[in-house]
Amino acid sequence: MLVLFETAAGHALFKVQDESKLAKVETITKHFETTDQANQLIKLKGFHAFKDTTQAVAAVADVVDGKIGKGLRKFLKKNISDGMKEKLAVSDKALGSIIKEKLGIPCVYDACVFELMRGIRTHMNSLIAGLEDEDLKSMTLGLSHSLSRYKLKFSADKVDTMIIQAIGLLDELDKEINTYSMRVREWFGWHFPEMGKIITDNLQYAKTVLKMGIRSEIKNLDFSDILSESVEAALRDVCEISMGTDISEEDVVNIRALCDQVISLTEYRSQLFDYLKNRMNAIAPNLTVMVGELVGARLISHAGSLMNLAKHPASTVQILGAEKALFRALKTKHDTPKYGLIYHASLIGQTAPKFKGKISRVLAAKTSLAIRVDALGEGVEACIGFDNRAKVEARIRQLDNGISNTLSGKGKTKSEQKKYQKPEHVAQYNAEADMQLDSKKRKVDELTQVDGVLDGDKGAKSDKKAKKKKEATVMETSQSEATDEKDKKKKKKKKKSA
């Protein structure tokens, strides 16, 4: 029996000297206790070494996928002749079935083969001549890294850790720049308070203070490289009537040092933003097209990684960043928030306030698809991002125009409206087919007769009612008279008895 053994250095083919020792699985390990016993049981018949790491990765990837590569095919054909009836022991069942199908070599894969492979792996250095232990370890480590990178399609440009660190540093820089700028304004405002209302930009303010120093030097300096002509003229006019106090040279030195910090931090901030923009376009181009660089980077940072963000559903992407408001609403049984970090996207900003909730839901659904393409797709282009953004913009236009039907566009399931075509032959109305029906209205004479009859009936009924009323009044008067007579008789009887 022959044994096919794969290593990081190449493919090895061993010949089993005594197959009777492999009858029982329990006794196989005893024959590999020492190196001499292993050499007595099996001998190396052939070895196919890999030329470089690329060939090794390709060969191992074929074995993992259950395929037979060109190098392995040639190696087996060279060392195993067609007339040989020996079986080939393999470590993979799928590989054995392919070898049997393609090359016609019967293969074996069972518990005995598994123990045999374990013994060969234990004494590999002695069984394969010229293969050192340290070299084999380095080859195995390099091959494992290369194979993992090949299977995961790893790229250094796809490391989203850089984005997480960059967006965190960018937020901290914004806070520092704002704090330092406000400190410069308050500090220099004692000397030139009117300047703060004229120059609103913090960077221009810091550069102007750094160049000017003392208020009185503004007349001798040119600020055309920093300020516009109108702002510079207004600054010169206000300088003459300023209400600020005088400051010493030491104060000017410290204020200028703080201005240097503001300028350097602002320049580094712009450089960091360019770096973040390039990273986002490389790692998540579709996400960048949908929500922008800053919002996309904050979503990735909040989720922990691009892969974690891709695992979130659209509803989670929609409210990502508003967890406190969400749990507070669930606890108090109020309305849940409609958006989180996605609220700062440009598409949400250009939407009317009453439609922001709808558009945030649509944008989150399309953005989640774009994120999954960026995380799991192989392409680098942002085609899906541009298509989804166009659909969201079309939805915004529909809501602004008061239309709430389906999205416009050429979808696969959308039925296209056919253009109306005027028919060539139009049927004309046939006047001869008309017929006149008898009128169903009553004539005037009949109506008058009916009215007369009704009036007569009404008169007879009214006479009967009058007679009944008279009879009723007569009966009442007779009854009242009878009761009066009875009362008189009772009174007379009482008087007699008395």
From TrEMBL:
Lineage: Eukaryota, Sar, Stramenopiles, Oomycota, Peronosporomycetes
Tree of life domain: Eukaryota
Localization (cell): Nucleus, Nucleolus
GO biological process: ribosome biogenesis
Composition bias type Basic residues, residue spans: 488-498
Organism, scientific name: Albugo candida
SUPFAM superfamilies noted in UniProt: Nop domain (SSF89124)
Protein's name in the database: Nop domain-containing protein
Family matches, as InterPro entries: Nop56/Nop58, NOP58/56_N, Nop_C, Nop_dom, Nop_dom_sf, NOSIC
GO CC, one annotated term: box C/D methylation guide snoRNP complex
MF-aspect GO terms: snoRNA binding
Key words of the record: Nucleus, Ribosome biogenesis
Domain Nop: 283-401
Xref: Pfam families: Nop (PF01798), NOP5NT (PF08156)
